[in-house]
Amino acid sequence: MPKVVTSTEKTTKMKITKSQLREMIREVIQNQMTEEEDSFSKAGEEIEKKGTEGVFTAKAKKRGMTAQEFAKKVLANTDEYDIKTVRQASFAKGAQTVADKK
Questions:
Q1: CA distance 24 to 101
Q2: In this structure, is the dihedral angle defined by the CA atoms of residues 38, 39, 43 and 44, taken in order, positive or negative?
Q3: For 81, which DSSP code?
């Protein structure tokens, strides 16, 4: 008896050129970067709204460091800091990464 092929078993072959593939990849990366930037923008707005803008930087300055230096130290020694400081450090590191990509 012949095998019945369902629509889920059918495969469609699509031929694309290398340049089309590169363009598709560029678009995906650009979309992801835009989403990441939007995410940090929204988080920044929330920080301003809550009135906690500059708190992490103040912690860093109190220790004689920049925010990025302090973030690096906190993330390397998470067991020495409270969860709030670790999250702030993670956010500072991510925000800097997004800023560097621009």
A1: 20
A2: negative
A3: S
